[in-house]
Amino acid sequence: MTHSPVCPKCKGTMHSGFVADAAHGQMLQSSWSPGEAVPRRYIGGVKVTLDEQVPLTAWRCTDCGFVEFYAPSA
Ligand SMILES: [Zn+2]
After folding, report:
1. Is 72 contained in some domain?
2. Ligand 1 centroid distance, CA of 11 (Å)
3. Is residue 37 in a domain?
4. Rounded distance from Cα 34 to ligand 1 centre (Å)
5. Distance 41 CA to ligand 1 centre (A)
6. What SS3 class is residue 50?
7. Domains identified in the chain, total number
8. Which of the chain's termini has less CB crowding within 10 Å, N or C?
9. Ligand 1 centroid vs 8 CA: distance in angstroms?
10. How many CB atoms lie within 10 A of CB 55?
11. Phi, then psi, of 51 in degrees rounded to 5
12. E strand or H helix at 70, and its extent?
C-alpha cells in the first residue's frame, strides 16, 4: 500500500507496520482469513486454507495510538 492513511480518530499521522505472531519458536506475520475461526480438534490452533491467507498491514497513529488493519491484494 502506497498511501498513508490519516488517523480517523485524531487526524494524526499513521505509519505502516505489521502484527508479529509468535508460533513454534518463530515470529510470523498475521494474516486475514475468510469466514469464522474453526478450531482444529487434535493438533490445536484453527483451520486455515493457505491460498486464502492475506497478510495484514497495520497502520498505527503515532499521536493517539489507534491501529487500523488492511489486507491488500498481492
Ligand atoms: Zn490518532
Report:
1. yes
2. 6
3. no
4. 28
5. 40
6. helix
7. 1
8. C
9. 7
10. 15
11. -65, -25
12. strand 67-70
Rounded CA separation 22/64 (Å): 26
Cell numbers found for residue 73: 491484494
Domain containing 19 equals 1-31+48-74
pLDDT of residue 22: 86
Q: Cell numbers for 44, please give them.
A: 490445536
Q: Is residue 26 part of a domain?
A: yes
The candidate with the shortest Cα–Cα distance to 61, out of 3, 8, 1, 2, is 8
Q: What is the pLDDT of residues 14-72, one digit of tens each?
A: 999 999 988 878 999 999 999 999 999 998 889 999 999 999 999 999 999 999 999 98
What residues does 72 pair with on adjacent strands?
A: none
pTM: 0.78
